[in-house]
């Protein structure tokens, strides 16, 4: 089940439970967004959030994906089949598909120049791809456990970060072969990774901690500790982070004064949060 604009929708079909893994918004108003489930991907459009198209797989278990920057037509999708699929939602079909890792692919994102994609997987590697040739440009093997997330630095095509269950966040500069410019130790498996909108910080979430790191001095700037493990997070408005925990609660962290507010409580755990401007969508564990 996902909630958008405080409106609840159920995407289960034929009484078969569908587990939501991620929600990705394609614009600033949530008029175009994707709901990624275990075996299905739904593309929603319009103010009434109607399903425009969907991708169904009998074998692949989808894990994550992202829109091409400033474009809601193309979407990079990854999962357990070790592949990266580029989907054209206007044509409702896969236009590119290639093997990317030796195991499950956990995250994939487009570069700012739109011609490369970055991926991370269970094989502990981070890989940079050329979409035109579908060939790997660089492979980074700095992590000691699965790579859980990848992200480009805002408005940059050469600098990116990866997170891993080894507890490390690593930042790379692709202008130099295999160059890792810095790393941060979260000290527990990292579930989520986000660059701040001010381009000065990086935020990591995993275990019972949410941490904000100063990219300039390469040190912890703020540490939030909860009693229960944290599940997911996303930026909200211009000065806050929404995050969820195993108490089935969504909280808001104000980045200016570091005050924490309770926003909503649910009957089921919140698996994913995706926000845009003053609105946000969430996916619950009940599908």
Mean pLDDT rating:
88
SSE string, helices as H and strands as E: EEEEEEEEEEEEEEEEEEEEEEEEEEEE
Strand order of the largest sheet: 2-1-28-27
- What is the strand tally? 28
Instruction: Work out the helix count.
Output: 0
Global Rg: 18 Å
Helix/strand/pairing category: mainly beta
Q: What general form does the structure show?
A: globular
Portion in beta strands: over 45%
**What summary fits the major beta sheet?**
4 strands, antiparallel
Distance between the termini: 4 Å
* Fraction of helical residues: under 10%
- Give start-end ranges of low-pLDDT stretches: 1-7
Structure overview:
The protein has 287 residues and is mostly beta strands. 0% of the residues lie in helices and 57% in strands. The chain contains no helices and 28 strands. The strands form 7 sheets. A 4-stranded antiparallel beta sheet has the order 2-1-28-27, with no helix packed on it. The chain has a 4-stranded antiparallel beta sheet with strand order 3-4-5-6, with no helix packed on it. A 4-stranded antiparallel beta sheet has the order 7-8-9-10, with no helix packed on it. 41% of the residues are buried.
Question: What's the gist of this structure?
Answer:
This protein has no helices and 28 strands. By secondary structure, it is mainly β.
Layout of helices and strands, plus pairs?
Layout: E1 2-4, E2 7-9, E3 20-25, E4 32-37, E5 40-45, E6 50-56, E7 62-67, E8 74-79, E9 83-88, E10 93-99, E11 105-110, E12 116-121, E13 126-130, E14 135-140, E15 147-152, E16 159-164, E17 168-173, E18 180-185, E19 192-195, E20 201-206, E21 209-214, E22 219-225, E23 230-236, E24 240-245, E25 249-254, E26 260-265, E27 270-276, E28 279-284
Antiparallel strand pairs: 1-2, 1-28, 3-4, 4-5, 5-6, 7-8, 8-9, 9-10, 11-12, 12-13, 13-14, 15-16, 16-17, 17-18, 19-20, 20-21, 21-22, 23-24, 24-25, 25-26, 27-28
């Amino acid at each position: 089940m996902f909630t958008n604009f405080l409106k609840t929708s159920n995407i289960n079909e034929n009484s078969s439970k569908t587990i939501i893994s991620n929600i990705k918004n394609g614009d600033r108003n949530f008029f175009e967004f994707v709901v990624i489930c275990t075996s299905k991907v739904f593309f929603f459009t319009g103010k009434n959030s109607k399903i425009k198209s969907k991708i169904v797989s009998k074998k692949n278990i989808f894990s994550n994906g992202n829109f091409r920057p400033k474009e809601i037509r193309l979407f990079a999708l990854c999962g357990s089949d070790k592949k990266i699929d580029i989907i054209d939602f206007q044509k409702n079909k896969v236009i590119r598909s290639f093997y990317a890792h030796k195991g499950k692919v956990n995250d994939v994102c487009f570069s700012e120049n739109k011609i490369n994609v970055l991926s991370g997987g269970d094989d502990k590697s981070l890989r940079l791809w050329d979409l035109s040739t579908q060939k790997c440009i660089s492979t980074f093997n700095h992590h000691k456990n699965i790579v859980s997330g990848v992200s480009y630095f805002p408005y940059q095509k050469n600098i990116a970060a990866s997170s891993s269950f080894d507890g490390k966040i690593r930042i790379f500069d692709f202008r130099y072969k295999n160059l890792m410019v810095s790393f941060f130790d979260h000290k527990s498996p990292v579930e989520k990774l986000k660059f701040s909108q001010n381009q000065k910080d990086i935020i990591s979430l995993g275990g019972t901690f949410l941490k904000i790191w100063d990219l300039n001095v390469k040190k912890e700037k703020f540490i939030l500790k909860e009693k229960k493990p944290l599940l997911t997070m996303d930026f909200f408005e211009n000065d806050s982070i929404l995050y969820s925990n195993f108490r089935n609660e969504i909280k808001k962290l104000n980045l200016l004064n570091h005050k924490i507010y309770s926003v909503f409580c649910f009957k089921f755990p919140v698996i994913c949060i995706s926000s845009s401007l003053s609105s946000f969508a969430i996916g619950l564990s009940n599908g």
